[in-house]
């Protein structure tokens, strides 16, 4: 070990209190408070005082809040490099109620809790009085892990013969759209080129939670996330003539019933099983009350894939939508037939055809039907959306609807149809297995961590192959084919205008990942807390072990 344990505890404590004390509510201008924190920290560390070119605040390209990614490089001997990442944004603090002003002052907050100023669960109360836990917004998620990273760099920077290199990247917006990490990929590529860095590992320190067995967990991958959006255009009809219309609510409901919790989308890879898909939103496009069927309806769902590509998932969703469409037409015909029998009129099958398109197909149809006229209208709309989105006047789903509706205007076909697209955010799934040979070394390090923890802390670490809480490690590697990347770019609404992931760059700098972080509880709640033994002693030792094994061979 390259540091004195008690000294390390003091450094971490100093860093975490200052870091937590800096207000950085996610997706807000408060995130920029971090700039002052980092300026002070850079100036505190002699190495960065003397090497101002090896630290900085990187401007996130095109960010509407002008947020930065604080970074630094501890340049030692050789090219082998470990990238430390953590996010500095934290979720809001309203849930602390009257104690909100103390939410970023852990010791004062704990005093107030001890005085009974807030109702706590039995477990939280026990932890509070045990003196083994530190409470406060962000102590666990994740300025605790962030402070461990800073403190290790502080210690290592005192060694003039440090072997290897450490890059630190602190990103905003992780709890929102990960603008920080998506931008940081560009920074990593330029550091790699400038200093000839060889990226061995991206090391994150998100907290882990424990189940009843109290076993700690490390992760060597991160679950993916895609958000397919469905726009269903029906056929308008007065409620008195229902059989001449097609109710889009009926059709989307069928699609929802066939996909919600559908086990076809469950995968088991290594030690991880992903949860089934679920719908997060469903709403018609009727703006005022009238006696017509709604013209359209839309909804989006969330799918958390492990190894499956977005394209393969979307193709299955398209199949399900076609089947749903057929079923709805069959049901409508059956119901209509019953009506004709009761009414004593002649039955003629309804004219509907199942029609389901990916957004890229719809877009190409609009270009074919309307050419330049459509392209101009599309560009104008995107300019408008970009402006309004950046002023927080329009949501992602509203923007998605506007784009699909604009595109539909420019195609000749006016029949009912289902459009399936992707909306931001998109998190690729990552696991070291995807990198084959390159990740072998990390597998060995994981075994070292397990035996070190067993021998020194009597703790039995387990390995999960995917961090299922969604993390920025999603942007550390990509093995998708060109076709799959193209598919995402063509079907992701707002791609390039409001939302962009440098997928080609990620593919180029791909590196193995690992998440080793302290034990945390009640993340995002007012009883958020981090285990002090992990924070001050155990986790720093495990991170030091990883660094020693990979850099100091
Ligand atoms: Zn987090």
Short description:
The chain is α/β, with parallel strands linked by helices. It folds into two domains: 5-222 and 428-476 and 511-551, Zn peptidases (Aminopeptidase, 3-Layer(aba) Sandwich), CATH 3.40.630; 225-427, Alpha-Beta Plaits, CATH 3.30.70.360.
Write structural notes for this entry.
The chain contains 15 helices and 20 strands. Helix 1 (5-21) packs across helix 6, helix 8 crosses helix 9 (310-343) and helix 12 (440-457) crosses helix 15. The longest helix is centred in the middle third of the chain and has 34 residues, at 310-343. The chain has a six-stranded mixed beta sheet, with helices on both faces. It is α/β, with parallel strands linked by helices and 553 residues long. Zinc ion is lined by residues 87, 141-142, 174, 206.
Estimate nothing, just give the exact number of structural domains. 2
Q: If you average the pLDDT, what whole number results?
A: 95
Distance between the termini: 13 Å
**Beta-strand fraction estimate:** 15-25%
The CATH architecture of the largest domain can be named as: 3-Layer(aba) Sandwich
Query: Helical element count?
Result: 15
Question: Reading side by side through the largest sheet, how are the strands ordered?
Answer: 1-2-5-3-6-18
Low-confidence segments: none
Question: Secondary-structure blueprint of this entry?
Answer:
Elements: H1 5-21, H2 34-44, H3 46-50, E1 55-59, E2 68-75, E3 77-87, H4 106-114, H5 122-130, E4 133-135, H6 143-156, E5 163-171, H7 179-195, E6 198-204, E7 217-219, E8 221-222, E9 225-233, H8 248-259, E10 268-269, E11 272-273, E12 278-284, E13 296-302, H9 310-343, E14 356-358, H10 359-390, H11 396-409, E15 417-427, E16 430-431, H12 440-457, E17 462-464, H13 482-491, H14 503-509, E18 513-515, E19 520-521, E20 529-531, H15 532-551
Parallel strand pairs: 3-5, 3-6, 6-18, 7-17, 14-15
Antiparallel strand pairs: 1-2, 2-5, 4-20, 8-16, 9-13, 9-15, 10-11, 12-13, 19-20
The structure holds zinc ion (ZN).
């Amino acid at each position: 070990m390259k540091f004195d344990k008690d000294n390390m505890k003091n450094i971490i404590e100093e860093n975490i209190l200052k870091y937590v004390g800096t207000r950085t509510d996610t997706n807000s201008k408060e995130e920029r408070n971090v700039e002052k924190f980092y300026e002070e920290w850079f100036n505190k560390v002699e190495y960065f005082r003397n090497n101002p070119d090896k630290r900085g605040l990187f401007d996130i390209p095109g960010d509407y809040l002008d947020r930065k990614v604080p970074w630094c490089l501890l340049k030692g001997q050789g090219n082998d490099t470990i990238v430390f990442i953590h996010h500095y944004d934290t979720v809001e603090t309203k849930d602390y109620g009257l104690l909100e002003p103390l939410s970023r002052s852990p010791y004062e907050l704990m005093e107030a809790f001890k005085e009974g100023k807030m109702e706590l669960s039995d477990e939280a109360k026990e932890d509070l009085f045990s003196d083994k836990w530190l409470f406060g917004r962000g102590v666990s998620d994740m300025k605790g892990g962030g402070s461990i990273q800073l403190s290790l760099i502080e210690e290592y920077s005192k060694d003039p013969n440090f072997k290897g290199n450490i890059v630190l990247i602190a990103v905003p917006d992780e709890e929102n759209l990960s603008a920080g990490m998506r931008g940081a990929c560009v920074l990593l590529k330029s550091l790699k080129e400038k200093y000839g860095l060889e990226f061995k590992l991206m090391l994150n320190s998100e907290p882990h939670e424990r189940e009843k067995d109290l076993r700690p967990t490390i992760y060597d991958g991160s679950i993916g996330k895609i958000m397919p959006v469905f726009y269903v255009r029906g056929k308008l009809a007065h409620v008195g003539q229902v059989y001449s219309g097609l109710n889009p609510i009926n059709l989307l409901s069928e699609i929802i019933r066939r996909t919600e919790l559908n086990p076809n989308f469950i995968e088991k890879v290594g030690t991880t099983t992903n949860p089934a898909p679920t719908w997060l939103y469903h709403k018609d496009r009727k703006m005022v009350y009238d006696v017509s069927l709604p013209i359209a309806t839309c909804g989006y769902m969330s799918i958390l894939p492990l190894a499956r590509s977005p394209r393969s998932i979307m193709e299955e969703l398209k199949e399900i939508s076609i089947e749903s469409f057929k079923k709805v037409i069959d049901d409508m015909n059956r119901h209509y037939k019953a009506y004709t029998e009761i009414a004593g009129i002649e039955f003629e099958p309804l004219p509907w055809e199942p029609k389901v398109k990916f957004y890229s197909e719809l877009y190409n149809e609009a270009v074919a039907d309307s050419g330049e006229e459509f392209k101009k209208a599309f560009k104008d709309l995107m300019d408008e959306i970009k402006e309004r989105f950046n002023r927080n006047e329009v949501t992602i789903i509203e923007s998605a609807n506007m784009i699909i509706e604009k595109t539909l205007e420019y195609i000749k076909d006016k029949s009912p149809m289902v459009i399936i697209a992707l909306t931001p955010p998109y998190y690729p799934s990552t696991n070291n297995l995807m990198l084959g040979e390159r990740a072998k070394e990390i597998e060995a390090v994981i075994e070292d961590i397990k035996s070190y923890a067993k021998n020194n802390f009597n703790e039995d670490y387990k390995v999960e192959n995917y961090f299922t809480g969604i993390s920025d490690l999603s942007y550390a590697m990509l093995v998708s084919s060109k076709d799959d990347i193209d598919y995402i770019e063509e079907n992701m609404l707002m791609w390039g205008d409001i939302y962009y992931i440098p997928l080609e760059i990620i593919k180029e700098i791909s590196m193995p990942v690992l998440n080793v972080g302290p034990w945390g509880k009640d993340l995002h709640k007012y009883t958020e807390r981090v285990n002090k033994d992990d924070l001050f002693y155990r986790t720093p030792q495990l991170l030091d072990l990883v660094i020693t094994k990979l850099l100091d061979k």
